[in-house]
Amino acid sequence: MNIFGQREKVKNQPYVDNKLFHLGFHVGLHSQDLILSHTGVATNGETWYAEIPSYSPGFSVGVIGDMYLNPYFNLRFIPTINFGDKKFVFRRQEDGEEFRTSVRSSYLQFPLSIKYSSLRLNNCRPYLTAGVYGALDLGRRRDGNPLLLKGFDAGVEVGIGCNIYLPFFRLCPELKFSFGLIDLLEKNRPDLEGQETIKYTEALSSAKSRMVTLTFNFE
User: Fold this and answer.
1) Does residue 89 carry a pLDDT above 90?
2) Topology of 20-218 in CATH?
3) How far apart are CA 174 and CA 164, in angstroms?
4) Domain ranges of the chain
5) Strand, coil or helix: what is 152?
6) What is the pTM of this model?
7) Which of 119, 88, 83, 85 is nearest to 101 (CA)?
8) Which of 69, 109, 150, 197 has the CA that lies 20 to 30 A from 84?
């Protein structure tokens, strides 16, 4: 008996974390970005540099497969599709003239990660995740855009979140950071041969992805 007359908070779903397998789904928002490297080489007397000055929010949705390993660790497979785009600004070094374009992507991502959960405090339980992923760009098209990204990406990701135990399910806000390891820039552009726009492709030497995702998991 508590001498101060206070009761311990009742725990929702006290044994849900002990299931060997469970499924769920998630929805969220993300922002796609690229780490750009430049050649610094002039084409037809012009030297161009590119950046992504602002981020456009994208939409993410996926399913969750979770396997219990021990009281602190879970193995998770979370196929996800990310709809978004990246807006580029090219600036000519000689006079500051600008050229703008955008690349729309629909990445089908296959992350495999380990989830480490802390001790549960009443109806909350913080956790960390780390893993690897592969991704396919379902929206990739050769439509004359001066920038074309490869159709496959792979990388690593880390995240932080918190299980919130409700009476009938767990709500888990999660913030995740993804870092691509593959150069996505498609340098072989025979479709642009003879066109002036090829100078924008030739201005870049590599482009590697990174993404920030805020999701709400329902498990």
Assistant:
1) yes
2) Porin (2.40.160)
3) 11
4) 20-218
5) strand
6) 0.87
7) 88
8) 197
